[in-house]
């Protein structure tokens, strides 16, 4: 089972290296469910995502602020979170949507939210590597980044889609916190899909 999960992650990594949108096949034709993220200070009231549902998340926040949704594991195991299709609610330019976001997978604590480590694409010694954030960008930003000859294989390279693989205990909650900017606003929308 572990080899199957890792094979799926590596397949996604290979797809991402080509700049493609690689949502799992079973959700490419799925109906999208729309939810709205809450501002970070209200994270305990964040809407709850469920497994095997394709979500479009909208966060209408000001520059410098972030939005949060949550996911609670129904059972102990390894989970894969796929995120893609990032775009601005209000693009800074009429011709191009140049924006990028940092998606943190946080856990709650007495001191508030703490970023946790997980496996994602990229790394100098292997095709997967640990990081504390998923670095995501709009298609226009990706084209600009790639045209400039910058890395699209590192764990912190901005990609149009990224995956996170992490182990969760039963009833453990992860708070997905998106910090987004296009130089003008923190408002954006993006999609997520969670599976085992």
Short summary:
By secondary structure, this protein is mostly beta strands. The chain has two helices and 14 strands.
How is the topology of this model organized?
Layout: H1 2-17, E1 33-36, E2 38-39, E3 48-49, E4 55-59, E5 66-72, E6 77-88, E7 100-107, E8 114-115, E9 118-121, E10 128-131, E11 133-137, H2 139-147, E12 161-168, E13 173-181, E14 188-195
Parallel strand pairs: 1-4, 3-5
Antiparallel strand pairs: 2-5, 4-14, 5-13, 6-12, 6-14, 7-8, 7-11, 7-13, 9-10
Q: How is this structure best described in words?
A:
The protein is mainly β and 196 residues long. The chain has a single domain (2-195), classed as Sandwich (Jelly Rolls). It contains 2 helices and 14 strands. It has helices at residues 2-17, 139-147; strands at 33-36, 38-39, 48-49, 55-59, 66-72, 77-88, 100-107, 114-115, 118-121, 128-131, 133-137, 161-168, 173-181, 188-195. The model is unreliable at 12-20 (pLDDT under 50).
